[in-house]
Design goal:
By secondary structure, the chain is α+β, with helices and mostly antiparallel strands. It has one domain. Helices cover 17% and strands 22% of the residues. The chain contains one helix and three strands, in the order βββα. β2 and β3 form a beta hairpin. The longest helix has 14 residues. The two termini are 14 Å apart.
Length: 83
């Protein structure tokens, strides 16, 4: 897991007042699967998220890592992760 959310600090509420907290859960994670590379990014539910510089940087580096264009071999996160 590269990024996680701990929902103890706020209370997301859905329709009809349902408590939507899920505890600490991953938002960005990666792993290697056979010869392939998998990266999941839960950011970007709305189009505006893609105009944020940090989200663009994360996506660019993730694609580069997944395409094996740059970055470490499996076993190390994409360059710049966690910064």
């Amino acid at each position: 897991t590269l990024v996680s959310v701990d929902e103890k600090t706020y209370k997301p509420v859905g329709i009809f007042g349902k408590d939507l907290r899920m505890g600490d859960h991953p938002m960005v994670w990666w792993h290697c699967l056979g010869k392939g590379r998998v990266l999941y990014n839960a950011f970007g539910h709305r189009a505006e998220a893609y105009s944020e510089a940090e989200n663009k940087r994360l996506l660019e580096q993730a694609v580069s890592w997944a395409a094996r264009q740059k970055g470490a071999e499996c076993g190390a996160p994409p360059a710049g992760a966690g910064q």
